[in-house]
User: Fold these one by one.
Assistant:
Number 1:
Amino acid sequence: MSYNQTLSRVETYFDKTATKTWERLTSDAPVSRIRQTVRAGRDQMRAKLLSQLPNDLNGARVLDAGCGVGQVTQALVERGAHVTAIDISPSLIEIAQRRIPSSLHSQIEFVAGDMNNTALGNFDYVLAMDSLIYYSQRDLANVLDNLARRTSEHIVFTVAPKTPLLMMMWYAGKLAPRGDKSPTMVPHSPRSLSRALGEGVTLTDLGRITSGFYISHALRVHK
């Protein structure tokens, strides 16, 4: 599947099929025990990624790539950053605009679109939490190379790790019919991804978060 095909599937899923579910999961509303583990895992991963950026971001321009409902965006703005909050789903952007206090909006540019668009300009930092987990190694490497050329400091992001369970689920998902058009996570090995990146781009392993049904691996890229 091409990059644009995957992008379209992700947009359809989050903008139409799963918007309400995602809105509830990322709120304080009661959820099932399974979704509680996902919520807790995401909270831990968000903290891990944010720990890779300075506490004082005054004057810094940051791309929140795949901002969803704006939890990372708000944390970055509260540190003083000017944030481009982009997501492929206009519905999630609307939720982010409602949730983030209006007093912070002057520091945020909300964009519905593709994080890989060079028209977004240059950044000091890029943070992409669980928004690059659906792409092939080739497409993921291309996105990271593109962003690295326009990022003065570093990029922190997550991938689905290549565990036996996730690989089994991935192969089963490839064979099974997917009538709901939901995107499929593509597991990646940090070592293999590092080899696929462009010359001069360094990848650092930041570790994994596992919380019940949530499992994600944090990485950092810089030139």
Note: The chain is about 40% helix and 25% strand.
Number 2:
Amino acid sequence: MMRAALALARRSLGRTWPNPAVGCVIVRDGRVIARGRTRDGGRPHAEADAIASAHEPLKGATVYVTLEPCAHHGKTPPCADALIASGVSRVVSAIEDPDPRVKGQGHARLVAAGIAVEVGEAAAAATEINVGFFLRVKEGRPLFHLKLASSLDGRIATASGESKWITGEAARADGHRLRSLHDAILVGAGTVEADDPDLTCRLPGLGAYSPDRIVLDSKAGLSATSKLATTAKTIPVLLFHAGAEASRVEQLHHRGINVIETPARGEGRVDVAAVAKKLGDLGYSSVLIEGGGQVAAAFLRAGLVDRISSYRAGVVLGEDSRSAVGPLAIGRLDFAPRFRLVSSRIVGTDTLETWHRRT
């Protein structure tokens, strides 16, 4: 039953920020009588969604939920109170919510009402689903997931800049799946200038779940006729700059772009640590980085890359081609960012490796 609740939670990834993605299954006598998940925009919460879906009384039922029911009044009443009022007799919760507004209080409220509470079933899987949310609660920033699509020797374009397409169609489609699982996608000004991307999710049925788009553009040079600018009122665009001219800022504001100034760092570039803090303040929990080598290097140097999905094609481009990661200025091997391999699989004609930052 907890596996079913976890599957429901995964269906909500990329759609619930600033709230976590949670799944809930309610059972009586071995029969599922209600199920729910956190809905788009974060409301209703999974428990409330499950209770509303029930077609029979819940008295005496067992609830399986992937995160501790909330105990605070936000834009919705506490889920712990809703469960108490429903008459359930037992709650199996995968993990305690680290949010200080909850953190054990939801479980305590259930116990005080005479409901049996068990915590810890499938805790590792539940933590992985909401690792970005937990990171934002604890460190004030989202999880950053770097996506690379490169040759065998780690190159993303030929010496002339040609990059379409190094990886195959199946890998590109899987990359769009990744987009749908994140709250936002981030690129640099160079990628926008070179490719004029729309940065949407173009898989059948997932177009409505395209993430917000983020551009690091120190001079706010984004063209007002670019795909991002002309679609900003439909799918949000955030642009971080480092002291651009007021006229440029005003023009982009007029297009519906959220233009945000950050401190400059190194050759007038946007300070990615400041970007991370601001995105955390705005409620983003997970950001997919699809920028070029300079953007990848900036986040790696700042110690902000938590995940890497590396799509590698069976082609070699050589030293004169463009690297997937720009200069890191690493003087000693001890200082190099390190990651552990979590999975590897074939995607069409390419290989996808997933790496997690070593802690």
Note: The first strand starts at residue 23 and ends at 28.
Number 3:
Amino acid sequence: MNVSSDYRYCPHCTKPLVERDDAAEEGGRTRRVCPDGDCGFVHWHNPVPVVAAIVEYEGKILLARNAAWAEGVFALITGFLENGETPEAGIAREVREETSLHAETTELIGVYEFIRKNELIIAYHVQAHGTISLSPELLEYRLVEPAKLRPWRAGTGQALAEWMRRRGLPFEFVDRPGQ
């Protein structure tokens, strides 16, 4: 197994990290470690917690297009959980920062893996109010009738499918968000 190359040097003593096979001690994974026995740094490369919101606004679901995405790709509101923040507070903050909407209620949908990006997604249904005003990170949005949503197979699409399933809404998966 090849480990991530995001850490090449020890963040404590700056020595080049080496790969260590920890088959017996740490679940059979290869990890990058500091060769200095006194330092002891291990790059665990744990998944990053991300919060995601199925934002319900005036009876419709808000999907947004990130500035870095191709035209026509719309998905849920997402963001990184910050230090000292509960997931509920984190998703309320992300919805406010990215759309200017205020969360009235948050309901946990589930927790989903997004292995390709080494993320753990904590997804919520958020009922929101206010006036939509997008942050510079988002280019445009769509308000979609819940019955017309088309979840995608990866990442937050699994949360959207579960939300629809719980409401008895039929759906078919599409290959990418916004199709």
Note: The first strand starts at residue 18 and ends at 22.
Number 4:
Amino acid sequence: MAIALIVAFSLGIIAQRNGLIDSIGKYRGDIVFLTQQHIKLVAISGGLAIAVGVPLGLWLSRPGMRRAAETIMQALNLGSTIPTLAVLALAMTFLGIGVVPAIFGLWAASLLPIVRNTYAGMLGVPAHFIEAATGMGMRPLQILSGVELPNALFVMFAGIRTALAVNVGTAPLAFLIGGGGLGELIFTGIDLNEPSMMLAGAIPTALLAVLVDYAVGALAYWVVPRGVNPLR
């Protein structure tokens, strides 16, 4: 961490001396406006991915779904090999251009890590925990909420953390189908051969990814019970 701060500080000094910070500062208004769009895209698509991915992972982990679960997970894994840009292009074909297809494409790109980690986390709960709960007379729903979920939360949060960080880094592609976001600065800067404009979009995107990762990690630290949280 200390090394990273030293490197960042050194790069900041170099950028200041080269006038790069002043060049990026010209786009301050655009950065604020497009960052708000970027956050909205990530919040909606990431929220939908969590809302769909967690229940789907829980459903696949149920004993009655074990046989079909592997086939479904393989299908999801196959879907993840499709480039995100192709997913966005496919969404644009059926949904047109704008925010809606962008959100759909980002949702699809974020879904797999959440489903996979939820499924793996539930399967990772020791069998004797469930047997003990059953022996105590707990019902299936009580076992799910009181035994399985608390023990699987750490792995589930890891999937959510990965998915949201990837979502932030992928969201610039939404600009290519009219979805807005910081990709407008990045791709316009590339087209115009303006490094400062490109960095005005790339740097906030990287910072957002770091902040989201840190925020989800901090949330997991306090939400995951102490007894099953290796960080506490």
Note: The CA atoms of residues 110 and 163 lie 5 Å apart.
